[in-house]
Amino acid sequence: MKIKFILITILSAFLIQGCDEQLEIAQEDNITSETLYGTPAGALAGLAGAYSRVVAVYREAVINAQYPTNWTDEGLYNRKGARDMRKNNFTASEPMLRDIWGTYYEGISAANTLIVGLEKSPLETHVKQEFTAEARFLRAFLYFDVQKAFGGIQGVPMPLEETNKQLLPRTPGIDVFKQIVADLEFAEQYLPNAAETVGGRASKSAARGLLARAYLYMASAPFNQAGAYEKARDWSKKVIDDSYHELNPSYADIFNELARGNYETKETLFQIGFSFADLDTNQSSKIGSAFGIKFDDEACGSGDAFKGKGFGLTYATVSLVLKYRADLNDERGLWNTLPYFNKRNDNCQLGLINSQFMIPASKYRRYLEPNTTNTSYGSHHWPVLRLSEMYLIYAEAVNKIAPGSNDALNAVNMVRNRANATPLNSISDGAIQEERLLELCFEGHRKYDLVRWGLLEQKVNETKTTMETLAADPNFNNEDWVTMGTFELGPNDIPIFGNVPINTSPRRNVMNASFDFYDGYNDFDASKHYILPIPEQELGVNTNIKQTTGW
Questions:
Q1: Which residues form the RagB/SusD domain (predicted)?
Q2: Closest CA to 276 of 288, 268, 264
Q3: What DSSP element (H or E) covers 488?
Q4: Highest-scoring range by mean pLDDT, 86-90, 351-355, 418-422
Q5: Which residues, other chains included, contact 380 with Cβ-Cβ below 8 Å and sequence gap of 6+?
């Protein structure tokens, strides 16, 4: 029997509850705390407890979006005066760190509690296996996030079923990854296929994709695990070879569907579902506002073409914009770094941004969200794993095994061809690394990628130098923008581009004094900013943990 349910419905009932043993099940289900996991409804409630923590930690778009993007060669946080983990000027006592850490470990505890409860459950074996597989997938997913952000070679505390309530020391990072692999291998065996899975829940493909990513991290610095590239190659190829999955012919459509709150499962292997039903911000997401087209005018509400205020908290770096502008055939450029915004008191129209230094990340389109309001939150789903990443993992792994491989070249060109980008004639580690930037920007990968490649400090310095050089160059003008044409809306309010230039004079490349463009680069400290510190509050509670080197 395949256990299916609409996850958002479950989350709406349980999202703001505490740990699993505190969940209140409707009385007519005849479920008590002693028999919670003895029925499918009770097991669903336990599973929802783990999923709800995933929703909670991703909804603010900080640890999964802003932190891994800001002050790299991908983007920068553009608000002045903030002092937190988004600007490289924080300490281990930062409250945001404490909250993120705590939410992750609440989710891990919920998964552990469910796994233990299912061991003693009278449910049929195959039903228990499927629920356990999903719980172990979520545990692996949560540990992966915590390990890549906080762990490093020293690792993080790793409570499992038998140690769920204990205060533990740090488990070495490589051992955390080995547990992640073990959980995902179990999940891959017992989870349903993607075609049989309700959107927003884990499937075999999600487990395989996360296994491929995990092995890529194990193969990279600081672990350099022997044989891990081969495993990354094999698991990514297993997803690629699955006839159910295919690249969406339209790069833009992937993100249009996310904005509409739909589940596109052919390319998207796993996504976190959000809801804005009844305008409930507990279940909603900030990704459309933080990483979408900038909309300033709150008056552009229902009945207008554009809906939903977008704050544009992160600018694309000028170096990323120039990479895209170097190949105007690449459709990802105008999708991810669109030089248009909605100006206040401008009749709800879109106009050109006046500086190539000030283009907000535009990957996510708030105006396609249903039930948009002036709040930052909406029902915008978050893409966790996509098929295009599997092609790029495969390419990276194969090229490490056999440098210059045609298989690696063909995999990268599959991704580029979908975007109408100019195909590559040869392949290298650098080309694959750049392709990950172009394809996966603003999806929460860049800083973690640069860390595992050992390139973070180099890219921080290169980006700052590029910005300083171009900002001081009176001859640097965005003349290529005159070819981009007018902005129009096509069917279903999807942006299209006309052929008539909207501006025929060079652009002004100024930096707005209201924002900070260099603070995060200036404050970068290579001795510690490759990794987040263990929250100081956690050290006070758990004296078995030692702080991360450098902090």
A1: 340-551
A2: 288
A3: strand 487-489
A4: 418-422
A5: 258, 259, 261, 274, 284, 285, 287, 288, 364, 366, 369
